[in-house]
Amino acid sequence: MAQAAAVAKPPAPPQRRRASATPRRLPYLLIAPAALLMLGFIAYPVISVFYYSLQNYNPTKPWRNGYAGFDNFVQIFTKDPQFWDTLVFSAKWVFVEVGLQLLFGLALALIVNQTFVGRAVGRALVFSPWAVSGVLTSAIWVLLYNSQTGISRYLADMGIGDYGTSWLSDTSTVFPAAIVADLWRGVPFFAILILADLQSVSKDLYEAAEVDGASRLKQFWHITLPHLKDAIILSTLLRAVWEFNNVDLLYTLTGGGPAGETTTLPLYIANTSVESHNFGYASALTTVAFVILLFCSIVYLRLSKFGGENK
């Protein structure tokens, strides 16, 4: 009887389940405080912007504060021509900047991916501008564009252009000047990402292509580009969002001028909130910008078939 009772005694699965479940949950419990803290830092500003976009909120004119409903949005789309001007310039800025940065970044990545003497030093020089902050980049280029001591002075000494020319004050040259300044800092971003992806391309593919008689151009078109597809799509999307939200460089270089020629939508939002103290209207502008970026990002990823198989 005792032997039968011992055999019939069932195990205790709940204890083993609890013991095995705890280690699986432990990593999530450990990162939960940091995750909740990050969520709070992200969620609170986003919710605040959506809330204030429906308000008339100006600390300098508290008697006008209160619920506005959708009046701010109606004003944006029907009574604010500056919104459309800044939106068009933002699209132009993003298209030109991201396109040129991708082109030069791809070329640099292909160059530094080759084997040559001093390649490590060359890579360091190519990638170093990315480590410079936007404000410091702006300060460097403000000095370079200075009409008395900058590039234009030395060009005038060589007989190219006139003395006292300020490229940042002329409406015909301010856009190219700002483009060049941001290219210097943005090109390494593409070069870094594309070079990292180039490192994973199998050399056997190129060797097989050479055996088949494929030229360098055909190898680039049929091997390199398809392999870089996802890296290019992701890098262009990230850089487009960053360039759209570019405030520090343009604010320091031109302040949105001359005559509002270089005012992007985020810069217009910053001026509306910081200088005019119209935080309700600025929040509505921010909400519109968020929706535009979200919509364009989704459409871009769908059209580019990010993550799909290369054909």
In short:
The protein is an all-alpha fold and 311 residues long. Helix content is 71%, strand content 1%.
Characterize the structure shown.
71% of the residues lie in helices and 1% in strands. With 311 residues, the chain is mainly alpha-helical. It has a two-stranded antiparallel sheet with strand order 1-2. α4 crosses α8 (174-198), α8 (174-198) packs across α10 and α12 (265-275) runs antiparallel to α13.
Shape call: globular
Oligomer: single chain
**What is the radius of gyration computed over CA atoms, rounded to a whole number of angstroms?**
28 Å
Average predicted confidence as pLDDT: 84
Order of helices and strands: HHEEHHHHHHHHHHH
Q: Order of strands across the biggest sheet?
A: 1-2
Main sheet specs: 2 strands, antiparallel
Distance between the termini: 73 Å
What is the number of helical segments per DSSP (H or I, 4+ residues)? 13
Q: How many strands?
A: 2
Which structural class do the helices and strands define?
mainly alpha
Q: Report helical residue fraction.
A: over 70%
Contiguous uncertain segments of 5+ residues: none
